[in-house]
């Protein structure tokens, strides 16, 4: 599996904005995006402490996960995220990589300056 050309790079995520909105986890946060391979719902991941943020309007809604080991049942469609599989980065299945278009269409669009300022209306 390779990174898809239009995938949102981790370094595009606005760390300061995530923290400002209450996204601090345990320090040394490393944020990334993933999406449900079944319905395409976007989730924010903090992979220093393996946390999944469920709600872009309320960053307190989060669950502990074990990336690369455990699965997760998507709260939108009930489909399972794959077990023993990377959910983020280049090793993730293409169906779980978030593209700029996915992000612009998602309520998570505020996490990157590019999609926050342009908004979904540009697409
Ligand atoms: Zn889903």
Architecture blueprint of SSEs:
Elements: H1 15-20, E1 31-35, E2 42-46, E3 51-53, E4 62-64, E5 72-73, E6 80-81, H2 100-104, H3 113-118
Antiparallel strand pairs: 1-2, 2-3, 3-4, 5-6
Bound molecules: zinc ion.
Which key features would you list for this structure?
single chain; 123 residues; alpha+beta; two-stranded antiparallel ribbon; 6 strands; 16% strand; binds zinc ion
Classification by helices and strands: alpha+beta
Q: How many discrete domains?
A: 1
**Principal-axis shape:** globular
Tell me the strand percentage band: 15-25%
Mean pLDDT: 92
Terminal Cα span: 27 Å
What small-molecule ligands were found? zinc ion
Biggest beta sheet attributes: 4 strands, antiparallel
The quaternary state of the protein chains shown equals single chain
Strand order of the largest sheet: 1-2-3-4
Q: Helix and strand string, N-terminal first?
A: HEEEEEEHH
Q: Rg from C-alpha positions?
A: 13 Å
Share of residues in helices: 10-25%
Strand segment tally: 6
Alpha plus pi helix count:
3
Low-confidence stretches: none
Question: How is this structure best described in words?
Answer:
It is a single chain. The chain has 123 residues and is α+β, with helices and mostly antiparallel strands. The protein has three helices and six strands. It has helices at 15-20, 100-104, 113-118, and strands at 31-35, 42-46, 51-53, 62-64, 72-73, 80-81. The strands form two sheets. It has a four-stranded antiparallel sheet with strand order 1-2-3-4, with no helix packed on it. The radius of gyration is 13 Å and the shape is globular. It starts with 14 loop residues before the first helix and ends in a 5-residue tail after the last helix. The relative contact order is 0.23. The mean pLDDT is 92. Zinc ion binds next to loops.
């Amino acid at each position: 599996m390779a990174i898809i050309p239009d995938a949102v790079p981790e370094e595009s995520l606005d760390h300061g904005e995530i923290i400002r909105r209450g996204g601090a986890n345990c320090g040394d946060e490393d944020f990334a995006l993933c999406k449900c391979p079944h319905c395409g719902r976007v989730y924010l991941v903090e992979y220093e402490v393996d946390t999944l943020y469920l709600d872009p309007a309320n960053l307190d809604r989060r669950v502990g996960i074990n990336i690369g080991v455990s699965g997760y049942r998507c709260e939108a469609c009930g489909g399972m995220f794959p077990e023993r599989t990377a959910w983020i980065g280049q090793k993730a299945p293409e169906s779980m990589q978030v593209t700029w278009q996915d992000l612009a269409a998602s309520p998570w669009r505020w996490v990157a300056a590019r999609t926050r300022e342009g908004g979904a209306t540009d697409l």
